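Supplementary Text 2. Reproducibility record for the structural model of the 241-residue chain.

All settings were left at their defaults, and a single model was retained for analysis rather than an ensemble. We include the record here because the model underlies the residue-level annotations in Supplementary Table 4.
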Amino acid sequence: MAETDSPPTSQYFNLTYPLPYVAHVEINRPEKLNAFIEPMWLALPPLFSYLSNSPSVRSIILSGAGTRAFTAGLDIAAASTSGPLAQHPPPNAPSPSPITSDLNANASSLYSQPTGTPYTSQKPPPPPPSSPPDPARLARSLFTHITTFQNCVSSLEKCTKPIITVMHGYCYGLGVDLSLCADVRICSPDTRFAVKEVDIGLAADIGTLSRLGKSAASASWVKDVCLTGREFDAKEALRMG
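Retained model, structure tokens:
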């Protein structure tokens, strides 16, 4: 069967074919330790969907560019300045909302109108652009963002071709997520793993919490590394499965 489509392109992933029927996907952001920003995880589904359906591919190798890291996980600096994960500090002091102020003004003018004067209605002004979103809208935005993020990472797990992750250096956070979606995990002796989300007050809800327990030999060990965020090396990872 011949190829009918061209592979999707992304500046953050190098796609090569080192051997017949073998595709090599290399995470390509070495200047930032291959840390992920949103365009990177959004590029995963089209890339792995293409490889999954390509008749020229029978196995996939996933690795990271550079000598220092497979991936350092999520780019926290980028995530904290834009998107739904950006922090919105609360106001220093409470103030009346524009809607409340407008309703009070309308009520005063209503009782001061002379008899027979037709009433007029006016829509309250929208809240100022700088106001933080209310909890319900923020929760909805986070739910949509996290679900999309989860689906992007899960595209590796849904790929019909076997994926081998080859890790080195730092493999933090999202790196653990990606490796757990693969079929085979291989690492160099210098690899350092960590489920780092707890250190910044986040749950490892992109996939580690649901997958690591199915891959490791001890539920106690899984809770240890997820709750403490501590590093563990290649020997410990091998020993725990």
